[in-house]
Amino acid sequence: MKSILLTALSCFFCLGICSQQYYNDTIFTTDKKIPAYIDVSKGNHLRGFTQIKEENKLLENILRLNSETSAILKDTLTDIAGGFHESYVEYYRGIEVEGTRCTIHYKRDGIARNVNGNFRTIDNLSVVPNIDEERALHYALASVGASKYVWEKTSQEYNYPKGYLRVYIKEGHPYLVYKFLIGTIEPKQESLIIYINACDGKVIEKRNAICNVSSTVTTTYSGSQTIESQYYFNNYRLRDYTRGNGIETYNSFNNDYYSSDNTWVGMSNYDRAALDAHWGAEKTYDFYYNNYSRNSYDNNGAVIVSKVNYDDYNNAGWNPSGHYLKYGFYDNLPLVALDIVAHEITHAVTGATSDLVYSGESGAINEGMSDVFAVCIENVVKPLNDYKIWQMGEDITVFRDLRNPHCKYYNGTNWVNTSYPAPPNDYGGIHTNSGVFGYWFYLLAMGGNETNEAGINLPVNGIGLNNAINICYYMNTVYLTSTSDYQDAALCSYLAAEALGYGENVKNQINRAWVNVGVEEPMYYVVGDSEPCGSSVYYVENLPNGYSVTWSSSVIVSSMMTSNFPYSNMCMISNYGTNAFNTYLTATIKNGSGTVVKTVSKKVWNIFDLTFSQEGCTYQGTIYNSIPETTVHSNGTIAVNPVCVITLRSPLFSGMSFSTSGANLNSWSVGNNNIIFSFPYSSSMQTLQIAGSNGCKKMSLTVRARPESLIPIPMLEAHPTPDGITLTLTIENEDASNTQPVWDLAIYDTTSGERVYSNHVERQSIFVNTIGWKRGLYAIKAVVNGEETSCKVIL
Length: 795
Fold this sequence. Notes:
The protein is an alpha+beta fold. It folds into six domains: 2-117; 133-209, Nuclear Transport Factor 2, Chain: A (Roll), CATH 3.10.450.40; 353-514, Neutral Protease, domain 2; 525-603, Sandwich (Immunoglobulin-like); 609-710, Immunoglobulin-like; 715-794, Immunoglobulins (Immunoglobulin-like), CATH 2.60.40. β30 (583-590) and β31 (596-604) form a beta hairpin. α6 crosses α8. The radius of gyration is 33 Å and the shape is elongated.
């Protein structure tokens, strides 16, 4: 029955964001069997149960992994909001699955909030290689064809390439591969990741491991700045050991720069680029440390190594194989502007966290993430730069402007096709398509009011640079995975905002910004009083300019409802307090051409829920309600014992006036939030009608006191489907006085005692979705008009 282990918790875990919902409680994207996101926020105290987690393989059960797949803890991160996150890597038959990551996110109180990742389903893959590592390396080097490799360089020691067995997913198909990281010198310098099929030696994948900035520009310096250097044998060199484990700056031959007096005035203009690189690395380190307590790019104090003045390299980049920053030239001008340095170091942060693959959409997000951090770091260090902070490389020349990038709309006019992720196509247009992420960030931070390529005009109210970059940091270090696309990025932005404690307005602006760049649709929802009194006004949030709304309700009569007056996108309900009913107010949304694009509703009510309990019974018959407090509707029916003290509770009782009719009572009293009464003993049925009102909220409750001889015995029957998808629950022998039984349902996991499902039912049968419920025995209890019946079922 492993097919019904916890994979979908939508039946009892509901992640709501007030009236609107930005994401479902279980989402499948990368894999159709293993969810990319699960909400586990209610009732799952995962932290602290180490033994249970190890023995029962909690994460494996939640993700519904097969018996040959496991999740191995990779690292634990404490975040800036006080929570912490446990990240796992997927292993299949003991072999790591390349690029996978799944994280359990905990609140600061140790309670798990949600799980997200990109694990993949793998079946029947042999993990025994047909070729050995040496042979695989031969195939890898043959595919590169370089005449000189980094390990052949005598001036510095490099390790000979080692092959690591991995499971690699390509186009949905798993392969057993050897992974090699190979650096070349001639005919050109490259750092390549190569995956060799361990079955036949063929190249499965080969990609550039260096993150590049497509900028070939002139540099100017940042004027007089303070730097840290190291005194060394009567000289000073560009080494700063006051930050992490060090910031070190060298030339392209891995040699130090020296100054005899620490003024560095004797440096040529050619060599002075080293000062910009050194200072820029210090300022970037400071930004991450001061804002997020991040100790270098890996959060473990890694040395930040910069190498400048590569004559044969007309770019700047992060080299993950050698763990250093590499700065070249264009027209003899060094590429070491502050925003370029910040951009490249952020690539290193990304490599140590989300590890976004440098191609296609994930590569565009990778580039966009580096751009937005470069913007914010420059804004802190050079606050007088004003609008120039949004221009990448503006000290040299403007090669990207996040306020108006060449590509600002997802799959739009200037979007580069990602189906060909090779160097001639800029790995799927990563430096062009990154504009979508950069422009989303600009709108989120600063706001905007433009019509996008789809003709939608939805203004964004900026939340500020600090709030926007906090969300991006959280996305990159906690939620994004190596294969994340733009839809994943949108989901992660909401998760980050929620974890950071941002409210509905911020989430709303996040959505509006994503709408403007074409990644999401507007999150329409109706705003207004859920409990109206007198006259109440409603409108549709996130309605684009030029769109219209038609209002309707199946219950409220037309004379009570005024639409689109005195302005459009408005509905007013008047004199609602004179009626007692609940309804859904529905808004039908049309675009400028009159086409219906969405229908959204909001529950409007003045019939409310209350709880009742009974105690102090002297009557010796059956106690029909054994649950201490049971929720009922204010216009419902409950059954109680005679000669018991009955307590009804609701915070809405305050200010209400009550009247009763029907049975004579032993006692009756009204407090601020409760009503207390009891029936005398009788051999016949006693019925009491309770009516209450405060002008807006109303109640009309029927209470029946029945001796044991008059009570039919309800029977609860449970029937699971063979595939474990649905559990059918039926009440038989219901009270003949009701056309349909009214019952409160609760289902408990007998192993943990946890209540996994509850509902108020006003019909004979209910179907409960049990997908994802763990295997075991469940206890089911139902209170039918006050009387309890129960059964058990094995799932």
